[in-house]
Amino acid sequence: MQTIRASSPTKAIIAGEHSVVYGGIAISAPLGIRKECVCTWSKKEGAGSITVDDSMGNGTYLATHEFVDKDGWFLAKAKLIEYLLKSEGKKIEGLDIKLDLSKEKILKGTGHSAATAATIALCLYSMNGILPSKEKLFSAVQKFEEVAHGGRASGIDAQTVISDSSQEFRKVFQKDGNARFQFEGIDLQFPIGASLLVINSRKKEEKTQTTAEMVQKFADHFKIIKKPAEMSEKEREKITAPFDELVEKIKMELHQKGDARKLGQLMTQNHELLKKAGVSSDGLEEAREICEKNGALGFKITGAGGIGGAAIAIVNESEVEKILSALKQKGFAAMKAKLSTKGACLMEKDGN
User: With a threshold of 0.70, does the pTM exceed it?
Assistant: First the structure.
């Protein structure tokens, strides 16, 4: 039996969500909360199979290109496996392959699916003696994301989880009507003495709103009836300018000598813009109130928002446990997170 281990960071959008759809600047950061995968394989008689066991569900992919789905969430994993095998001309006949992914809780809105895809892809590539380039790994994660989220994926989550640094990105609209994202790695750190909390606003009885629903809510607020690519640059700038101004100011405080209090205020201002645009929720506002009453320096939506959406808070290190406890008492899942400087990577490879 042989074993390979891989891990991937999760991610948080620090600023610029929603306005980025219209060409605004956004910042996404890989987090120290990581997803891990252990891949083991051995020879077997007859047709091969790949079994995946994960907190998001489990199932088995067969050499006959069929899959047995035990929970309704295995399709994206199966499509990723198919893509990896087909693109490299590999087969699984005669192999019994098991992918065991870490089960610890990863909060909604922090790139769980992208991190899952990155670890699976790294393990299967490595098992076949391939060390994938960033471009190859990005493509694999994108294949997974498109199936998992039922449509075209922006690439933000994929690019962030495979990167060793935070990413500044924006959507560039071309004359032919197409658009693409431009990414640039940037070195970001939180001010000394400040910590980041990641918060899930979902209560157990709530049905979460999708990213597509929240993108539409944002568009409805601005009375947008055109697709972003159909809008003029001036029309898009009217939407993005207030957000871009805050993103730039937030970025200026994201270093060890930055002003944590000012950073918190700017994050809250960003949240207010998003709230005004209709993408907050009662749960997010309740979590915000708890954080602020217990001394948080700033609070904002991260990602799509809406019912069950995620949020981040900037807090003094001395207040972390108090705020986490207060959130837990009201039924909110939350955790402290550090920024990561290591993207998706192999952890260990051995055989016996």
Answer: yes
